[in-house]
Specification:
The protein has 65 residues and is an all-alpha fold. It has one domain. The chain is built from two helices and no strands. The longest helix has 38 residues. Keywords: Membrane, Transmembrane, Transmembrane helix.
């Protein structure tokens, strides 16, 4: 009698693999915080470019007067 594939015991995991498997439960939090940081960086970069562009567009007409 052979157990089905899903019910066979798991192979022995090394200590780093066990640690990694334990940390995978919290991994989605790290992914979400990374995604939030990327989004925040993108928004701040767009704002900085907008400020620089507006400063150039305002400074040139004022300087020509």
């Amino acid at each position: 009698f052979q157990l089905p594939q899903l019910l066979q015991p798991l192979p022995q995991l090394s200590q780093p693999a066990l640690r990694c498997a334990a940390m995978l439960g919290e991994c989605w939090i790290n992914v979400l915080s990374l995604a939030a940081a990327v989004l925040l960086g993108s928004i701040l970069s767009a704002l900085l470019l907008t400020i620089i562009l507006m400063a150039i567009c305002v400074y040139r007409p004022v300087r020509r007067r």
